[in-house]
Design a protein that fits this description.
Shape: globular
Strand content: 15-25%
Strand order of the largest sheet: 1-9-8-5-4-2-3
Radius of gyration: 21 Å
Helix content: 25-40%
Number of helices: 12
CATH architecture of the largest domain: 3-Layer(aba) Sandwich
CATH superfamily of the largest domain: Type I PLP-dependent aspartate aminotransferase-like (Major domain)
CATH class of the largest domain: Alpha Beta
Number of domains: 2
Order of helices and strands: HHEHEHEHEHEEEEEHEEHHEEHHEH
Number of strands: 14
Length: 380
Amino acid sequence: MEKIAKKIQMVDLKSQYEKIKTEVDTAIQNVLTNTAFINGPEVKEFQKELEAYLGVKHVIPCANGTDALQIAMMALDLKPGDEVITADFTYVATAEVIGLLGLKPVLVDVVPDTFDIDIAAIEKAITSKTKAIVPVHLFGQCADMDKIMALAKKHNLYVIEDTAQAIGAEYTSADGTKKKAGTIGTIGCTSFFPSKNLGCYGDGGAIFTNDDALAAKIRMIANHGQSVQYVHDSIGVNSRLDSIQAAVLRIKLRDLDNYAAARNKAANYYDKAFANNPKLKTPARAKFSNHVFHQYTFQLSGVDRTALREYLASKDIPAMIYYPIPLHLQKAYLDPRYKEGDFPVTEKLCASVVSLPMHTELDEESLKYITSSVLEFVNK
């Protein structure tokens, strides 16, 4: 298939911005005019609007998603040596904060269809030192929170949801109750990095909880550990969402469900194009969660991944690998407890997954070009 004129990107933030340019420019100018750059009215309004959207009592904005995870663990009074269980197949930030706080990351495998944390592996990894579970809602859909919460209750553990890739996703419990990703566990954490489904134009993050006392503690820690100005009750950090980012996020929050619908439309196109191809395994949808497709990640079988990416690059189609190296094989996280072969699903995924362009601005011409190009290579 001949190249198309439109430039294809993994994430097309420019086209998305152009659709909301007038609103965004006006909102940013208002912040500049008011000069309330930190904790201004836009931050407070965004907090309220996100609380209403998520159906959660407390949203505490912060500087980024990694800070959100760190502050959450600090607020739960986790101490050096405490064990925190999380998935081996995830971005490094999930485990990074565990190490930064002197806690002990306990890695477990994921399930091969949805890529979410393996419940049986979690239960097997629990010890007397385990204090928390950090499920990652990877690529845009929820982990099996009913089973995770049951395990947490049984063993008296905290649950910190990493929903950086799944904000807006909805989880349906066995009893039919529906809750947004990040609002089910003890604490939820998210990132507003520009490429995220709800992304700002810089760095940003937020922490969610329904616990009043915990919310107060999180707010205090995020603001230098002070309850009132110059009164510091605990050691804290400096982690704030600035007003310009909040102004942008307020506008984009109104379109978040529409953005998810656009991503699903693109994902459905990919699924249909690749259906029944034995060399391409499309991403599974969990029965208990909808999918907001932060990434469209599929698995290759009997295909040279490097050669495929080179072929796509020659046709000006980007394709990424999320993630090429399991956490347990990263130099920073090498541990005598783990060796190559201990996490077979994660290791297989790291060797076989590919992510195609996924964003709100993908049109049919682009999708046809991308899928045709993939199939040209795979079927030759």
